[in-house]
Write a structure and sequence with these properties.
about 250 residues; 3 helices; elongated
């Protein structure tokens, strides 16, 4: 829709929302106060943008609603939720049923898969891809051109450890061009180094050096990532020898 046009049936738009040129709004979208949506964005059916945080986050001292922005050319899939204070750069894609928490920052050309959940204050660098059903704990840091496979879980603390306050201090960091395969679980204050790779199904409880391939439960280093291919190489597993179990991990890289 164009600025000044009446919203289509079923759409709720707060008075101070700013819409760029040629924004498409699906049925029953809800755009809350303090939101800016850039030109050429597509907001699909039942999307909620700028929703104030709820639960423990809403009761905290830093939970006041903040400005929310969706960069030009971005698309937000049906039934997705973008919480207040979140910021999406240009040309982002947020899949259906996904959620982006309060105060999270996504740089340009980021892709968030169907049903993925980003808690509050998550940072995602330019061109990174977050797979279907992934979960990123509060304050997680994702670099540029990172690939997270389906079902990746980035948890800030070990099960049974104390509360949300501790999770804000201890968080995982995944550096530029790293690859994390499907179903990987990262627990605690760990760092995945630049150009590193984590094979599918691994449990990561310790930091991974740059340009290393790790696999296993718990994960351990298997070898270097080939410099000519980088972490996103398609056939890392085929280039290595060793037991078949080790190779199966390598072949499952996202």
């Amino acid at each position: 829709m164009r600025p000044g046009e009446k919203p289509p049936n079923g759409v709720m738009i707060a008075e101070d929302v700013v819409l760029g040129e040629n924004v498409e709004l699906g049925w029953h979208a809800a755009i809350h106060a303090g939101t800016t949506i850039g030109a050429g964005c597509v907001i699909e059916d039942n999307v909620v943008i700028g929703r104030p945080p709820v639960g423990a986050r809403a009761r905290s001292s830093d939970a006041a609603p903040e400005a929310t922005s969706i960069g030009a050319g971005s698309r937000v899939g049906s039934n997705a939720v973008i919480s207040a204070g979140a910021s999406l750069g240009p040309d982002c894609l947020v899949g259906p049923l996904a959620s982006v928490g309060a105060g999270s920052r996504l740089a340009g050309a980021v892709s968030v898969g169907t049903g993925a959940h980003l808690e509050h204050a998550v940072k995602v660098g330019r061109g990174s891809r977050i797979g279907t059903g992934a979960h990123l704990a509060a304050h997680s840091e994702i670099g540029d051109e990172v690939l997270l496979g389906p079902g990746v879980v980035v948890e800030s603390r070990e099960p049974g450890s104390a509360g949300a306050e501790g999770s804000d201090r201890a968080h995982s960091r995944i550096r530029d061009r790293a690859t994390v395969g499907a179903g990987v679980v990262l627990i605690g204050d760990v760092e995945i180094g630049q150009d590193a790779a984590v094979a599918s199904g691994a449990l990561v409880t310790k930091s991974v050096p740059p340009a290393k391939l790790v696999a296993g439960f718990p994960a351990r280093i298997w070898r270097d990532v080939p410099e000519s291919r980088g972490a996103h190489g398609d056939n890392l597993g085929r280039e290595t020898g060793g037991p078949s179990a080790q190779n199966s991990y390598r072949k499952e890289l996202a």
